[in-house]
Write the structure tokens for this entry.
Amino acid sequence: RQSFQFHRTSSFGAKTGRVPVGIGRRRLRLVVTGGAGFVGSHLVDKLIDRGDEVIVIDNFFTGRKDNLVHHFRNPRFELIRHDVVEPILLEVDQIYHLACPASPVHYKYNPVKTIKTNVMGTLNMLGLAKRVGAKFLLTSTSEVYGDPLEHPQKETYWGNVNPIGERSCYDEGKRTAETLTMDYHRGAGVEVRIARIFNTYGPRMCLDDGRVVSNFVAQAIRRQPMTVYGDGKQTRSFQYVSDLVDGLVALMEGEHVGPFNLGNPGEFTMLELAEIVKETIDSSATIEFRPNTADDPHMRKPDITKAKELLNWEPKVPLREGLPRMVSDFRNRILNEDEGKGN
Ligand code: NAD
Ligand code: UDP
Ligand code: UDP
């Protein structure tokens, strides 16, 4: 096991006398920061379904109560409006730390706030984990590899990141968050986990968050041209959200610190993605080229050998199966939006 001699385990189950769930495991109390967001809300669904108590901490910058409303009457669920940049006192067994805007449009909106969230927010959650002996999982990102010079990317690659560019608040913020996580592990014996998440899509993504899958799907539904940035030959690998959530839980429950790449190795150019969205939603959909943004990585594809071997995890949902699953959610929300405008 990769933890240090100072390792402590939480004893809140014993203190609170909470009842066991299933056979051989007591009910856990978990925190999900950023739990009102896209990935966080799907993770909360899984953790509540398996019988644990979940406390969500979220400042609703990009998250929505709508994503969690189905849990509001459940006594095992709690929602706290709180900014992770400020300290907080809680008694918990595990912390899934997701709070941070993930879409380039959102994280560039207030770059200093993005850095504060990644650095001070992560520090506070690690301080909390240290105080109560909780396990801590950081959702880092494939962006730590920057515009990669190694392809596909393995966890051993240290990356090619611009420290002073428009994306740096996110890339360097997450790199610092990883550093803090490892320092609390080595220095204070906190039991930690690090996930490096690759592009993920699915229901509940913000409609206008500027990410490529949500943009193309919303544009095709609205019968607008799909906006391809640059020449459209840059590549990404797209993971369906349920695969990611399974990976995060496997990582938290497993014995290994990581970092682990969690992503789907299927690699597509943006032009290929547009073609698949066209086949899925509207065969008459068109594309329109736009200038690309600064420092856009040319290619990205995870090597997931480590997660396969050590977590026994791999994605199950290919892009052509995952895309249709988000379309009805997008259609409903776009319809509601239009009705709200009186259209
Ligand atoms: P999201 O924007 O939908 O969710 C982020 C959540 O964090 C939102 O609910 C937001 O309100 C909350 N938040 C932001 N700043 C906060 C703060 N200071 N205090 C409290 N809450 C705050 O994004 P997501 O796609 O669900 O991403 C979740 C995590 O996964 C992020 O840490 C992101 O960096 C990481 N990640 C996501 C992807 C992806 O493709 N979705 C890829 C790599 C990494
Ligand atoms: N912290 C927190 N909740 C806790 C414990 C700590 O928010 O339950 C914050 C604390 O305010 C500090 C950060 O986590 O800003 C780091 O805490 P740590 O104890 O590691 O460092 P110190 O307080 O000694 O700087
Ligand atoms: N992109 C695009 N059209 C859009 C939005 C994004 O062609 O409407 C491209 C973008 O230039 C990048 C890729 O899609 O090369 C992925 O962008 P996204 O913002 O989804 O995530 P990133 O991987 O850059 O964080």
Residues 33-34, 36-40, 57-63, 83-85, 98-102, 106, 117, 121, 139, 141, 197, 199-200 surround nicotinamide-adenine-dinucleotide (ligand 1) (CB under 6 Å). Confidence is low (pLDDT under 50) at residues 1-9, 13-17. The two ends are 59 Å apart (CA to CA). The longest strand covers residues 135-141.
